[in-house]
């Protein structure tokens, strides 16, 4: 039984497992923990802990390996849905002791072969014993090469001691993230290798915890030692631990409970019997960890339900999409329909247009002057509608030209004008705005040609062409837009890009609803474009060098790429954008953009990251190039736009 569906959150259930001792009676382990204890799965030791291959040989013992029962004791679906295999915790593949090392390697291989035979979904690997884990990683890496679909979860204690005196490049050996990082680097970021965090009673700083949300963390093990006791004698967590649990749930990290009950069950059991007025319950004791599970369930239930839009977007989380090319391609009806649902965007445009109309025509002349407004890139008409509503709201007279180069959207525009009775006010022009020979000049030019990175759908090039029919003192809405980036840990995105096994995918920017990422520094602005552009030099190429300072208390972190955003000033103080610190609430037209790095770069606490971004233009295309220069150099990505470009 999952921890339950919260009201309004039917799409996402959360599960809670329990770590169990070795038992060769697996049906009983499942009955006790799942049926009686209400856990969803067990993390069960697969092999008798006393087993050592060298002892078996010496004693000439049986060749039957001492696993926890045969495969037949549970059904295949019970094994795969309810059991995570736990690899013997004594193994130490980096021990100085050759016999122990060899025993460990043999046992690891035997246990993982058995787990594959049982079709388990995942196996929990014990934490590396010391700071050096090369031989352990080598052996796991060998196994990963031939593994079908099973996941390997490396157990890592959640430890980072604060050390204010850490200097750049010093080995901060008190940070367990370093062990994980070494291990996964040795295993080349294998996508079937992930982390399980062992949560301890004291927690690292919030900054340092945040790093883990960009890593592939599958579960968090809470030992009963982490729990405090509330005034009624029941287990509860410290405030910081309490805050961590919803963070785990939000990032699809399952909770596993472990250890012996350290809370007196006498009272809890008598409460249990008193609350269950059922004769059959007499003599039935609660599962010793049930109060802990109920507490975790309580923390889950009290989380705020996801807003409707977030629920709708669950399927898009961390899913890479190619950015639209609305200039080169013609958008489909479905895409326009999605845009048109974003009422927030049109409300912002309407506010901007209203202000511009009021500034353009004083109240006393409102019935005498007709403002010429051109919507360039009108799509199926929502900005035409917003313009007409702004005119009505402000009492200004309007003449509208709706310019659109997509012939299919022009069909919709014609039927809309007829349907709404706009024939006298709105003229439809089926043309590319860059080549239209306008019969008169506009007072206001309204467009929405913005991509997730602002200029990436070639708004600058289109508006440079269109501004020839804007009056000298005319207004462009938007009046400017700026792109932003910051470095992120995003191991899922990195692995998804890597799965294509080519350079081209690493040199492509993706639109993605970022979720399981860690933001390593605040965003900084990259390129700004202002309209109308009255300068004589219409060069839209840009170059920017940025330096990000990594906080000293975070610990080291991995950069897998850069998250990109935009903010646009529509008119005066009316803006619209997705840069996290100023983003327009309840607007969903744009997900962020992601620029990957071919090789992730490790950042030390207190160090700085120097990155270079270029916007390059040729007569036929526009593209970005990017590269890191410090702390180490990456190749320049997307040289000459060889992998990713936007067509003019
Ligand atoms: C992002 S959509 C916005 C559509 C509409 N304004 C809205 O808000 O739903 C951009 C529109 O501009 C059109 N467009 C892009 N470049 C254009 C150009 N050079 N000339 C005319 N239309 C263009 C596209 O076909 C598309 O319909």
Automatic annotation (TrEMBL):
InterPro entries in the cross-refs: Arg_MeTrfase (IPR025799), Arg_MeTrfase_PRMT5 (IPR007857), PRMT5 (IPR035075), PRMT5_C (IPR035248), PRMT5_TIM (IPR035247), SAM-dependent_MTases_sf (IPR029063)
Signal peptide residues on this chain, from the entry's feature table: none
Binding of S-adenosyl-L-methionine, residues: 336, 345-346, 404, 432-433
PRMT5 arginine-N-methyltransferase domain span: 308-477
Similarity comment text for this entry: Belongs to the class I-like SAM-binding methyltransferase superfamily.
Protein name: Protein arginine N-methyltransferase
Residues that span the membrane, as ranges: none
Site entry: Critical for specifying symmetric addition of methyl groups: 339
Compartments, record wording: Cytoplasm
UniProt source species: Rubus argutus
Ranges of residues in domain PRMT5 oligomerisation: 480-646
Superkingdom of the source species: Eukaryota
Keywords: Cytoplasm, Methyltransferase, S-adenosyl-L-methionine, Transferase
């Amino acid at each position: 039984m999952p921890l339950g569906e919260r009201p309004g959150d039917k799409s996402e259930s959360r599960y809670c497992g329990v770590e169990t001792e070795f038992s060769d009676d697996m049906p009983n382990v499942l009955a006790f923990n799942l049926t009686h204890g209400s856990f969803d799965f067990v993390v069960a030791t697969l092999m008798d802990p006393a087993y050592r291959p060298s002892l078996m040989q010496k004693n000439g013992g049986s060749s039957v390996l001492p696993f926890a029962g045969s495969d037949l004791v549970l059904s295949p679906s019970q094994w795969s849905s309810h059991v995570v295999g736990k690899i013997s915790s004594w193994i130490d593949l980096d021990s100085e002791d050759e016999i122990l090392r060899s025993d460990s390697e043999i046992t690891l291989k035997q246990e993982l072969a058995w787990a594959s035979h049982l079709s388990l979904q995942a196996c929990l690997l014990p934490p590396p014993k010391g700071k050096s884990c090369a031989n352990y990683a080598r052996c796991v890496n060998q196994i990963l090469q031939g593994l079908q679909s099973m996941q390997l979860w490396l157990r890592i204690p959640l430890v980072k001691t604060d050390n204010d005196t850490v200097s750049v490049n010093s080995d901060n050996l008190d940070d367990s993230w370093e062990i994980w990082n070494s291990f996964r680097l040795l295993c080349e970021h294998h996508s079937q290798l992930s982390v399980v965090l062992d949560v301890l009673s004291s927690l690292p700083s919030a900054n340092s915890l945040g790093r883990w949300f960009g890593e592939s963390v599958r579960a968090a093990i809470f030992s009963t030692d982490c729990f405090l006791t509330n005034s009624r004698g029941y287990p509860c967590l410290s405030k910081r631990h309490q805050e961590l649990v919803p963070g785990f749930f939000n990032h699809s990290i399952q909770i596993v409970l472990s250890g012996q009950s350290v809370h007196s069950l006498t009272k809890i059991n008598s409460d249990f019997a008193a609350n269950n007025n059922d004769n059959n319950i007499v003599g039935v004791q609660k599962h010793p960890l049930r109060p802990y599970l109920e507490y975790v369930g309580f923390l889950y239930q009290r989380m705020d339900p996801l807003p409707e839009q977030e629920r709708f977007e669950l399927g898009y989380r961390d899913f890479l999409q190619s950015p639209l090319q609305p200039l080169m391609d013609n958008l489909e009806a479905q895409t326009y329909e999605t845009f048109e649902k974003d009422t927030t965007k049109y409300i912002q445009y309407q506010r901007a247009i209203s202000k511009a109309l009021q500034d353009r025509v004083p109240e006393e002349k409102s019935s005498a002057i007709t403002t010429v407004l051109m919507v360039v890139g009108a799509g199926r008409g929502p900005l035409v509608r917003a313009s007409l509503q702004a005119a009505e709201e402000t009492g200004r007279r309007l003449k509208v030209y709706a310019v659109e180069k997509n012939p299919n959207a022009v069909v919709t525009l014609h039927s809309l004008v007829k349907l709404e009775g706009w024939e006298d006010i709105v003229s439809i022009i089926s043309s590319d705005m860059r080549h239209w020979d306008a019969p008169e000049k506009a007072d206001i030019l309204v467009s929405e040609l913005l991509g997730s990175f602002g200029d990436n759908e070639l708004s600058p090039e289109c508006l440079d062409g269109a501004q020839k029919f804007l009056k000298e003192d005319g207004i462009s809405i938007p009046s400017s837009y700026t792109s932003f980036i910051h470095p992120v840990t995003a191991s899922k995105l990195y692995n998804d890009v890597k799965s294509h096994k080519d350079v081209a995918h690493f040199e492509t920017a993706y639109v993605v609803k970022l979720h399981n990422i860690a933001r390593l520094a605040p965003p900084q602005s990259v390129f700004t474009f202002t309209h109308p552009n009255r300068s004589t030099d219409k060069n839209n190429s840009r170059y920017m060098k940025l330096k990000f300072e990594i906080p000293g208390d975070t610990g080291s972190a991995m950069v897998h790429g850069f998250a990109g955003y935009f903010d646009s000033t529509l008119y005066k103080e009316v803006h619209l954008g997705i840069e996290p610190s100023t983003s327009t609430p309840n607007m969903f037209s744009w997900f962020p953009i992601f620029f990957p790095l071919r090789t992730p770069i490790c950042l030390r606490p207190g160090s700085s990251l120097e990155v270079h971004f270029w916007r390059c233009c040729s007569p036929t295309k526009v593209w970005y190039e990017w590269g890191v220069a410090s702390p180490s150099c990456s190749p320049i990505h997307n040289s000459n736009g060889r992998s990713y470009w936007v067509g003019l």
